[in-house]
Amino acid sequence: MSLRKDFLWGGAVAAHQLEGSYNVDGKGISVADVMTAGTHGVEREITDGILPNKNYPNHEAIHFYDNYKEDVRLFHELGFKCFRTSIAWTRIFPQGDEDEPNELGLQFYDRLFDECIKYGIKPVITLSHFEMPFYLVKKYGGFRNRKCIDFFVKFATVCFERYKNKVEYWMTFNEINNQTNYQSDFATFTNSGIVYQEGEDREQIMYQAAHYELVASAEAVKIGKEINPNFKIGCMLALCPIYPFSCNPKDMMASTVAMQRRNYFGDIQVRGKYPNFMLKYFERKNFKLDITKEDLDILQQGTVDYIGFSYYMSFSIKASDKTNLEYNEANDLVKNPYVPASDWGWQIDPLGLRYTMNWLFDRYQLPLFIVENGLGAFDKVEADGKIHDTYRVDYLRSHIEAMIACIEEDGVDCIGYTPWGPIDLVSAGTGEMEKRYGFIHVDKNNKGEGTLKRSKKDSFDWYKEVISSNGKKL
Ligand code: P53
What is the pLDDT of residue 320? Predict the structure, then answer.
């Protein structure tokens, strides 16, 4: 086994992190539009609407909305076979509960997809990538409300119908499992539009929202396949494997539980039903969840075709007395002494990608699609005016090597690789511009200053060769 001839090399972004033009052509305000810029260690602030004198980095981002032609041409120069982006929900349904979609928003994605297709680049589309309408948060409480299932399904249906001849690969919810970190205000807000009130049982609310999203995802898959049976619709999981800290059987069991708890979403999206360990957990916690017989039927009818996942880092866990029953992502994870970390503390572990691919393929036997991977790093323009980003190349090379070994030696079926942020963009986690992933540099700093001019980093030529040699020249 080796890389397929049609292996989908490309890059991945999300609408809110690069488009800008946040209030243009009828677009509504999304959850990303009410988040300020933070830094490593300083969380982004979630404000109640757009307030004066705050820095909202997604409002302008890198102005891809007007610059997409130049950027797609650069992607073509890199040799992209595909380009993963999302459709900003608020361009299509500005508030989220309208009867009719916004035609100007739909037209933007027609232009963008046509531009990609012109160069033979397949659009790979995420429907909901941390950018649900803020109005749905205010009026309905986000995905704590069952009504959001219908709003999402309507949005998905409109997109499937409109782009059925332009887009083949879809994903429903980006990193749907990130919200298991319910202690963070950020994760559940970006995934599900949840704003917690004092004293609420956050965990129960998260599982309820997650359930509605899983139902919405399944219903969308089902409808999508009716609209075009050739669609490939995947789930999208943030796969951070959680290793046992030691070979102490208790650490091993803690790792098993943590992996189950973080990744049960995939079990449902692939197999169409809740795994027993989750049903038992809900029972034990005495959660009162609204899960109906109809919901369970829909989950079975809308299973996915492939496993889309992001891989950036691995975690590890040390058992505490109560870990097995009360696993808590925020408290139980520990630093791994065997791997280095990025400037943002993300543990760099290329072999972990091979482990993860095996774990996913053993579990699901479905094709894998690595739809995000990369190193967020500070770049410096050197005296010769260029960025010599060897650290970025080192990171990507080691991960691609692990991926190819996994395909060739372990026989894992993997259809593509789209590293995160081929062009510098706004960080989701911190809102910074200077946490950069790109092969293409964008002249803009954390304060929002800069010309937005695009230029190639050293990694640009490197990745171009990787693609043209189909992974042979690394
Ligand atoms: P940033 C956390 C953990 C793993 C992936 O992240 C994550 C997050 C959220 O921060 O998000 C994904 O920009 C996400 C992208 C995001 C990318 O990883 O924080 O799908 O939207 O930009 C990188 O460095």
Answer: 82
Q: Which residues of the chain have pLDDT under 70?
A: 1, 322-326
Buried b or exposed e, range 25-61, using 16+ CB within 10 angstroms: eebbbbbbbbbbbbeeeeebbeeeeeeeeeebbbbbb
Report the alpha-carbon distance of residue 183 to residue 418 in Å, rounded: 30
Q: Tell whether ligand 1 has an atom less than 6 A from the beta carbon of residue 329.
A: no
Distances in Å between the Cα of 413 and the Cα atoms of 5, 129, 365 are: 13, 25, 8
pLDDT tens by residue, 395-421: 999 999 999 999 999 999 999 999 999
Name the phi and psi angles at 449, rounded to 5: -90, 150
Question: 8-468, what's its fold?
Answer: TIM Barrel (3.20.20)
* Choice among 115, 175, 329, 432 that is catalytic: 175
Residue 179 in contact with ligand 1 by CB distance below 6 A = no
Q: Is 465 in the active site?
A: no
Q: Is 435 in the pocket of ligand 1 (CB under 6 A)?
A: yes
How long is the chain?
474
Tokens of 163: 């782009």
The residue whose C-alpha atom lies closest to atom 13 belonging to ligand 1 is 427
Residue with tokens 């997604």: 58
